């Protein structure tokens, strides 16, 4: 009788363990607000420690020649997961095929200056946590526009915290950080590309990391702009 009971319990335990493991992995990209904020290592070391999420991103940092920035400087980094980079490169290759041109098979074929210019839009000097940013309301930008910040590459990006509603009370719910791309500086509150943060306030030893939600983002914000920059700069041969 005991043996039969154990046989019934074991599958349930295995399923529970599997679900728990999946939740641990998924919560990193979704808005659970549950994670250990401190990391005993630099931002670059933090990214390298999570290859399932950031292996391609780490390669881009290397190709861009920005390893020292992530290793030695004090920065705030809105980390785009590797899947967002893959989506933009895939769009680039679709464009190249339509043009009858060779596709990109290695990240190194895209020139370092393109990677650096694009990656720099996610990097800001100094350490800034969610509490340091102003309120953002994407439906009422005139009242709550967030704020413009100079990125590492000196492009102005908009950053703000969305206050969600709760129990019918406006702005009483959980708060979510957003990084926004401004397509037209003459109309800074129009057509913003708003990217939500899934995990905020991760604290390595040389700054702060906010992980962007991968489903909502293509690397470079405006994929057509990224493609234009790559093609204009010239694609290097695969060998």
From TrEMBL:
<dbReference type="InterPro" id="IPR036378">
    <property type="entry name" value="FAS1_dom_sf"/>
</dbReference>
<protein>
    <recommendedName>
        <fullName>FAS1 domain-containing protein</fullName>
    </recommendedName>
</protein>
């Amino acid at each position: 009788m005991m043996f039969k009971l154990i046989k019934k319990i074991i599958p349930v335990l295995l399923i529970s363990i599997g679900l728990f493991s999946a939740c641990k992995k998924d919560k990193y990209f979704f808005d659970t607000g549950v994670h250990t904020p401190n990391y005993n290592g630099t931002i670059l070391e933090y990214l390298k420690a999570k290859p399932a999420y950031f292996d391609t991103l780490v390669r881009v940092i290397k190709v861009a020649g920005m390893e020292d920035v992530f290793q030695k400087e004090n920065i705030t980094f809105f980390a785009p997961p590797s899947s967002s980079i893959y989506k933009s490169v895939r769009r680039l290759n679709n464009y190249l095929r339509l043009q009858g041109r060779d596709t990109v098979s290695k990240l190194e074929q895209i020139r370092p200056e393109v990677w650096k210019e694009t990656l720099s839009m996610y990097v800001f000097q100094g350490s800034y946590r969610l509490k340091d940013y102003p309120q953002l309301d994407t439906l009422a930008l005139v009242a709550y526009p967030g704020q413009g910040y100079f990125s590492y590459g000196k492009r102005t990006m908009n950053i703000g915290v969305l206050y969600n509603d709760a129990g019918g009370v406006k702005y009483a719910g959980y708060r979510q950080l957003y990084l926004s791309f401004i397509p037209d500086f003459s109309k800074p509150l129009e057509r913003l590309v708003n990217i939500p943060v899934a995990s905020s306030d991760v604290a390595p030893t040389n700054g702060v990391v906010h992980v962007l939600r991968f489903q909502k983002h293509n690397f470079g914000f405006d994929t057509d702009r990224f493609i234009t920059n790559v093609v204009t700069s010239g694609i290097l041969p695969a060998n």
